[in-house]
Automatic annotation (TrEMBL):
Residues 1-30 are annotated as: Disordered. Pfam families: UBD. It comes from Coptis chinensis. Residues 14-112 form the DC-UbP/UBTD2 N-terminal domain. PANTHER family: UBIQUITIN DOMAIN CONTAINING 1 PROTEIN-RELATED (PTHR13609). This is DC-UbP/UBTD2 N-terminal domain-containing protein.
Length: 113
C-alpha cells in the first residue's frame, strides 16, 4: 500500500528530482575543503547501512546534471523521498541520507585560483 517497499500504484508518478535549495556553510569554505568533505562522506557512506551499489548510484547522481541524475536514480530503483535527493530509499526500504554539501556548492564558497 503506502509503505516504502511497496510497488508503485498505477498512474502514480515518481518524484522528479531538482537542485537543492541554496545553503550556507557555517563559515566560508574553499573548493579544496568542500571536495575533501565530499570525498570523506562518499568513502564512509556504505558504513551507514544500505547497499554499496545504491550509494554508488547516488554518488553518480549527485555529481551529474539533473536530467542524467534522474535517469540514474530511476534505473537504480532509488525511491526519492525528498526531491533534492537528501532523503532516498532503496527497494528494500533502506534509508539513504545525503548532506547538502555533496549535492551542491554553498553560497559562501571561496573560489581558489
Amino acid at each position: 500500500m503506502g509503505c516504502v517497499g511497496s510497488s508503485q500504484i498505477k498512474g502514480e508518478e515518481k518524484k522528479k528530482i531538482r537542485k537543492p535549495k541554496p545553503w550556507n556553510h557555517s563559515q566560508p569554505i574553499t573548493n579544496t575543503q568542500l571536495n575533501r568533505m565530499r570525498d570523506e562522506f562518499w568513502d564512509t557512506a556504505p558504513h551507514y547501512g544500505g547497499r554499496k551499489e545504491i550509494w554508488d548510484a547516488l554518488r553518480a547522481a549527485a555529481e551529474a546534471d539533473i536530467a542524467f541524475a534522474q535517469a540514474i536514480v530511476d534505473s537504480a530503483g532509488v525511491i526519492v523521498s525528498s526531491a533534492d535527493l537528501t532523503t532516498c530509499y532503496d527497494e528494500r526500504g533502506a534509508k539513504y541520507e545525503l548532506p547538502r554539501y555533496v549535492l551542491s556548492e554553498p553560497i559562501n564558497l571561496i573560489r581558489e585560483s
